[in-house]
From TrEMBL:
Biased composition (Basic and acidic residues): 102-114
Protein name: RINT1-like protein MAG2
Pfam family, one: RINT1_TIP1
Natural source organism: Camelina sativa (False flax)
Region (Disordered): 89-114
Low complexity: bias regions: 89-99
Gene that produces this protein: LOC104711234
Length: 795
């Protein structure tokens, strides 16, 4: 019978053994389970022995393979050395006397053979050197990866982790340092030896497997440490504190070993993330030819925010009808702890060499993202449901008000949190990527249909308010004061233009809060562009109403059309000025997808701006109705000059010395001056200039065709009368230019031909077009000039 072995001394038990026995035997009743425990331990020992045997066999196989490989490499070296020795002996040159001429041929042959073998030998040497470098690199990487795997397995040891000894942190730091060394070697290999891709891939596979175990464990330990610090803090103390200094911040109150342990965990987590970013950068660079990395949130900051998010959402559910409380709580939490990010955590991030990361920015970004996720999951679906379910106008109106109130809260919240980030002086808020991470309005990036709904609501609300202003006639007659709008003295717009511009500017200001350029363009095309179209429809309708009632024969209708043209031209000038602003220019730089943005399919020229179509429509409206004003005045003038034009005999009669102008022309000239004066008083200067110039051109054509081209005969007195009539006609336009006859080119040149002597005209016309040009006749053709000359009757 085997002798019974004595129990070991209790003093020889380790702390882990004590902990294990305490867990298994809590009272006397647990002793009955001893046989089962012994069996379990024996089974586990047997499995470990088997695993150790397998590992020993694998080690023996690996050593044998390595020995075989080493022997092959050694053989190659021996062969190379032998060839080098042979080359050295064969290439030695010894001078010989002429009597040794029989050996000269042999020496020359030896040198020739050596010259032929040298390139191939050098190639073999280079191959051997490459093999040697590969073997050394592979062995070094294998050793490093083995150290990493051992360190990872050690860090997974429950006894080592629960004891929280310094050895545990040392093992983790050793693993991270080894990982960095391995990554540096891999980066060098990938850069210098692209043909060793399989080696890099094999090492990457093993390292990724180690990181897959290391990162979750590091995050789990970090969470446990945060919990032991009392994070997250109680919201009762947070919400009751009136100042951020009164808020209990566990990050500031931790001391001694606890603070050292937290800083070590934070630093280790940042180092791990930096290492992963470095690996991703190398892998993407090798596969795509460039480094394309999206911003990755800071893991350690995310773990600070996640428990706060869970705790705060318990309060959010009670405030579904009061979203302003939700935004206020999130902002207060963000603001109260933002200083600790700069003072305590930022130095640790810098020490971990995590380039491009600001703890303040990451903290604010993580808080905003957590809020945005809650809005997407809980708030917006409720508001969308209210809009879709509301059938009565009052309920739908109330739902729209709630929606716009929520948007106002989001815009206000974004401005406040962005001010917290900008205080660090690091972030450029003009960059789309940065804005997306610190804007609650980024919810529209994934849900453009919600953006469309917002634009629709915004448009409806603006049009309702604008309609009341449109129907007030005084807004169309009273001019905008100069001190209100600097360019009002140029375009003389009615007050309705200023009111409309306020509504349009409000939509544009709200669009500036949208964090992505293509979404801003989408919002403006859906909300602002239809608003401009509505304004254009209003001014067009007023003009059409005036034309339909009296065909613009009444002075009041001319005033109405003139005011409408002024309003349209002023808005057109504002849109043209805006098109040169950076905010609108960047929407034309191709940073949007036309297929995804309705209304942008034809938006191809950045110079036109986002409102290019509307600008062209306003311009077309203005030119069309300026022409109609000219046509209306011309029509009335034509009707009053019919007797003057039909009286063909007057040009052969003697001149009436009592009248300086033909009697039948006086009424027409008075009408012309009266109508143009009314238009001048009401129309802006630029458009009035275009109008009277067009009118002068039409009158020039009318009189030239109806009189000079109508086979009328002019005597000397008739020419003098016609000249005086034209001088009076020119006088009507002399108020707006120095040489009005320049705007009646055909009448002026025809009158010049009529005043020439008979011989001069006949001789000149016989020379043709050259003579006409020499005498300043540029607007009449040769046939027209001959016809005018034939109408002259010389006494």
């Amino acid at each position: 019978m085997d002798a019974i072995k004595p129990l070991p001394q209790v003093s020889s038990f380790s702390a882990s053994v004590f902990s294990y026995l305490d867990d298994r035997f809590r009272d006397a009743g647990d002793l009955s389970h001893s046989p089962g425990l012994v069996s379990e331990l024996q089974t586990e020992i047997s499995e470990l022995d088997q695993r150790l045997a397998v590992l020993n066999r694998q080690l023996e196989s690996g050593l044998a393979s390595y020995a075989s490989f080493s022997d092959r490499v050694g053989g190659l070296f021996v062969e190379v050395n032998a060839k080098l020795a042979h080359l050295s002996s064969s290439s030695t040159y010894v001078p010989r006397s002429p009597s040794d001429g029989g050996n000269e041929k042999e020496e020359t042959t030896t040198e020739h053979v050596a010259g032929e073998e040298l390139p191939s030998l050098a190639k073999e040497v280079a191959q051997v050197e490459s093999v040697r470098a590969y073997v050394e690199t592979a062995l070094k990487l294998d050793t490093l990866v083995g150290d990493i795997e051992d360190a990872v397995m050690s860090s997974m040891n429950k006894n080592l982790r629960t004891s929280r000894s310094s050895g545990f942190e040392e093992v983790r730091l050793h693993a991270i340092k080894t990982l960095k060394t391995t990554e540096d070697i891999l980066s060098s290999v990938a850069r210098r030896h692209p043909r060793w891709a399989r080696l890099v891939s094999a090492v990457d596979h093993r390292v990724d497997r180690a990181l897959a175990m290391m990162r979750p464990q590091a995050i789990s330990d970090y969470r446990a440490l945060l919990s032991s610090l009392g994070w997250p803090p109680q919201f009762s103390t947070l919400t009751s504190a009136s100042k951020s200094e009164d808020v209990h911040n566990p990050l500031f109150t931790m001391e001694g070993s606890l603070k050292s342990q937290y800083c070590g965990n934070f630093h280790a987590l940042c180092s791990l993330q930096g290492l992963q970013l470095q690996r991703k950068s190398r892998q993407l660079g090798s596969h795509k030819g460039e480094n394309v990395l999206f911003h990755q949130p800071l893991w350690a900051i995310e773990e600070l925010v996640n428990p706060l998010t869970v705790a705060s959402q318990r309060h959010f559910t009670k405030w579904s009808e009061k979203p302003e409380f939700i935004f206020e709580l999130v902002f207060k939490i963000t603001k109260d702890y933002v200083d600790s990010m700069d003072e305590l955590l930022q130095p640790l991030v810098d020490e971990a060499k995590l380039a491009g990361y600001s703890c303040r920015e990451e903290w604010v970004s993580a808080m905003v993202i957590s809020l945005s996720l809650y809005l997407v999951k809980e708030i917006f679906p409720t508001y969308v449901g209210q809009l879709s379910e509301a059938t009565e106008s009052d309920l739908r109106s109330e739902a729209k008000v709630s929606w716009l109130h929520l948007i106002d809260l989001m815009i206000s919240f974004d401005k406040r949190v962005q001010s917290l980030v900008s205080q660090s002086g690091i972030l450029s808020l003009q960059e789309d990527g940065n804005l997306l991470r610190i804007s609650s309005l980024s919810v529209f990036c994934d849900r453009p249909d919600w953006l469309d709904l917002w634009a629709e609501i915004e448009l409806d609300e603006r049009l309702v308010k604008f309609k009341a202003e449109i129907d007030y006639d005084r807004n169309w007659t009273v001019k905008v004061q100069d001190e209100l709008i600097s360019t009002s003295n140029v375009y003389r717009p009615p007050i309705i233009s200023s009111i409309f511009l306020q509504h349009l500017s409000s939509i544009i200001e709200r669009s500036k809060s949208v964090p992505a350029i293509y979404l801003r363009a989408r919002f403006l095309r859906l909300a602002a562009a239809p608003t401009i179209q509505k304004f254009l429809d209003c001014v067009l309708l007023r003009c059409q109403e005036a034309e339909g009632l009296t065909a613009l024969t009444e002075n009041n209708d001319l005033v109405k059309v003139s005011n409408s043209i002024n309003a349209g031209h002023y808005i057109e000038s504002v849109l043209e000025e805006w098109s040169e602003d950076v905010f609108f220019l960047e929407m034309g730089t191709g940073q949007h997808d036309p297929q995804e943005v309705p209304g942008l399919e034809n938006f191809t020229e950045p110079s036109e701006g986002i409102f290019g179509d509307e600008f062209e429509k306003l311009k077309k409206f203005r030119l069309e109705w300026i022409n109609k004003l000219s046509v209306v005045v011309l029509r009335g003038f034509d009707a009053r000059t019919r007797d003057y034009i039909k009286n063909r005999k007057q040009w052969q009669e003697k001149k009436d010395k009592e009248w300086t102008v033909s009697r039948t022309l006086v009424g027409a000239l008075d009408y012309l001056q009266g109508k143009t004066s009314i238009v001048e008083e009401n129309l802006n200067k630029a458009d009035f200039t275009a109008m009277w110039r067009s009118l002068a051109s039409e009158i020039d054509r009318l009189f030239f065709n109806s009189i000079l081209m109508a086979n009328v005969k002019f005597s000397n007195d008739g020419v003098e009368r016609f000249k005086e009539d034209m001088e009076v006609l020119y006088g009507v336009f002399r108020a707006w230019c120095v040489r009005p006859e320049g705007f009646f080119p055909k009448l002026s040149e025809g009158l010049m031909l009529l005043k020439m002597e008979e011989k001069q005209v006949k001789d000149g016309l016989s020379r043709g077009a050259k003579w006409l040009r020499e005498n300043g006749v540029r607007y009449l053709s040769e046939a027209e000039a001959k016809k005018v000359a034939k109408s002259r009757v010389f006494s």
